[in-house]
Specification:
The chain is an alpha+beta fold. 34% of the residues lie in helices and 28% in strands. The chain folds into two domains: 167 residues, Thermophilic metalloprotease-like (3-Layer(aba) Sandwich), CATH 3.40.1830.10; 192 residues, no CATH class.
Length: 367
């Protein structure tokens, strides 16, 4: 018996998040483990009149390429995908996993070599999205592997996932619209503000948002969603932060990350586990040592760490920052092959002031 929540999620992705219209060229990308959701997305796109292109892979193929592709193969860009990123209207991605540690033995430098070779695709996708010519959304299909990562049974994890996406409700879209209204009030308050100071047991950091734009994320690009974010002025970040949770990249968990910033740049960075991968990420290119994103998570339906950044960065009461590429729509000018999110819990003895006024305390907005 099919799960009505999968159909609801597909409906949200196609009709709300990306608002597919008749004639749109829609890319449906994902892992074979997400096939039940990919099928529902395909059906929803067809019913609304879109033109779907399906691009499916799996962990085995990704791992094989990372292990065995030569430099020429890494540098080669599939011309069909290049055309898609240049010309398509919509990008819908549904990932999944059978093994969250599938890439553990792949060297960090190798992961970054492949990411760097495909940076033009990322630049095109984000650039066109900022211009309003490319609508996109990403989500994650719940599997046994991800449930295990989150220390839940599959049934518990499915309930968690669909609740975080509001798909346990008859009208998920109404839930996202309500969250968007609340977040917009905070975004409006921040217009014209200049300076942010963060303080707490794990953070003492200042940054400038002068001339930058905060984005209200209420289901339009990530599902689940729940954050407001911007791109800090590149040379403005100063101070120190210790991130509360492991950050997983390429199937490897990097934990105990501490970063120190001077005039925007990460001048020192250490990790208690997989420090080699942290250093590889930071040394990818010049932009990898600068922040491309600063964000506040607002989804209190996500109240625990699960090992999936799509969910964890939205945890209500946390902030996250990404080293590397910024989103052009925020005003960010930072460019990099890296965009790596890291999360800091702000729910205890922590606060954010904006231009000297208290904005956020112990995980909650006070304005």
């Amino acid at each position: 018996m099919s799960d009505i929540r999968i159909k609801r999620l597909a409906h949200v992705l196609v009709n709300y998040s990306t608002a597919v219209k008749p004639g749109d060229w829609v890319g449906i990308l994902g892992d074979v483990t997400a096939l039940p959701l990919l099928r529902e997305i395909f059906e929803a796109v067809v019913k609304v009149g879109g033109n779907p292109s399906v691009m499916i892979g799996d962990e085995y193929m990704s791992r094989t390429f990372l292990r065995h592709a030569n430099d020429d193969q890494v540098a080669w860009l599939d011309p069909m995908q290049t055309l898609y990123y240049d010309k398509a209207d919509v990008y819908i991605r549904a990932t999944g996993s059978t093994n969250t540690r599938a890439m553990t033995t792949i060297p960090g430098k190798r992961v970054q070599q492949v990411a760097a070779s495909r940076q033009t695709w990322l630049d095109t996708r984000l650039g066109r999205a900022a211009q309003g010519t490319f609508r996109w959304v990403g989500t994650l299909f719940p599997t046994e592997a991800q449930a295990q990562e989150a220390n839940m049974s599959l049934e518990e994890y499915q309930d968690f996932v669909y609740a975080a996406c509001f798909c346990d409700r008859d009208d998920p879209v109404a839930g996202w619209q309500a969250l968007g209204k609340m977040q917009q009030s905070k975004v409006d308050w921040l217009v014209g503000k200049k300076h942010i100071q963060l303080s707490g047991p794990n953070i003492d950091l200042s940054l400038s948002i002068e001339g930058r734009t905060f984005i209200n994320c209420s289901g339009g690009a990530n599902m689940p969603d729940g954050e407001i974010f911007t791109g800090p002025v590149e040379n403005s970040v100063n101070g120190w932060v210790k991130f509360s949770y492991p950050s997983i990249v390429g199937g490897r968990a990097v934990s105990g990350i501490e970063l120190k910033f001077e005039d925007g740049k990460v001048v020192s960075g250490t990790a208690e586990q997989n420090d080699e991968l942290l250093q590889a990420q930071l040394n990818t290119d010049a932009g990898a040592r600068y922040l491309g994103e600063f964000a506040i998570g607002t989804n209190f339906g996500i109240n625990k760490f699960t090992g999936s950044i799509l969910y964890d960065e939205k945890i209500g009461g946390t902030i996250h920052m990404a080293v590397g590429k910024g989103y052009p729509e925020t005003g960010s000018k930072n460019n990099s092959a890296v965009h790596w999110d890291m999360i800091c819990d702000m729910r205890h003895d922590s606060q954010i002031t904006v231009d000297g006024d208290l904005f956020y305390k112990n995980g909650e907005f006070v304005v």
